[in-house]
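So, read this over?
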Amino acid sequence: IKKREILNYISVAFFLCVLNFNLINKLDFVRFISLIIIPLFFYISSDLSKKKYFSFAKGYFLGFFLFTSLHFISFFLNLFGTLDLIDNFKYGGRNFFGLEIYQFWVSFSAVISFFAVTLIFLYFMKVKQRIFFFPLIFLCFFEIALTLRKAALVDFLICFVFIFIFIVLSKQKSKFNFKNLIFILLFFYVFYLLYSLVSNTRGISLETAISQRDDAYLIFFNILSNFDINSVLFGFKSGWGGFSNLFVEVFLRTGLIGFIPFILSTFYFIRKFLINCTTNIYFNPKFNTLIKYYLFFTIISFLISNVVNMNFILPYYTLNIICIILYFKYKLTTSS
């Protein structure tokens, strides 16, 4: 890294800190640092996305494949111990040869689903060496089953909608050929199996999950009903947590003075990063629509994940999402 780049990173960090000054008094110090550093990750990554990083992208793919393969083996080894199959899903699945996987249920499951969807998009874009995606996609579906998270299935549902639209609007001779029909039916079947597994194993229905969020929003609206100008500008209460919604949390804790600078600075750098990774690439023009769909998927996934689970403030999640999007650009660049 050149000295000029280091100065740029320091200046951006200072800029973010000044813009989000109101967050200091309202949030725990660790949360504040996370909210400042994570936009900086995207700024640094926007610079990285302009350069060649072939070795990095290959290493990330291989590392992900090796980890999921070993975890697959670890799961079946647990069956030889004291855990039966159902308990292994509930408790043993999050273990990696006896070690618990960091944030397995929330952050890890979100990363796995995002990566699997990225591979599915790349497969339909017919990038080079896409045959190697199949074993990793299978392992990702297996990991999703182990996490037992309905939220992890949302990315697949969004992906399917975009892929379905792409097939329907395709100008090819046969829009619904046998291959596409098999894919649609297979996807629905796998999605149904995963959803049923999560519901039956955890015993949590979709209605129960929604009602848990409803109670939090009723509290939020009750707080807003007793607003005054000072609260709207500088925040209603201190602390953090309880609403599982990043945007609600930041607004409730910091008011408009903290919320607006945070959102503007964050989305500015995310937008810059995504543009570098999804545009101005000399790839097959017939897949430009699918590239745009992937961009829309990324944005929608980001919004939903932070409305439901606040994944953005988890550095593990954010860094992996950045790496996955960089891998997406790498495959398009090397397949052009």
Observations:
- The beta strands are 95-96, 99-100.
- The first helix runs from residue 3 to 19.
- The longest strand covers residues 95-96.
- The chain has 14 helices and two strands.
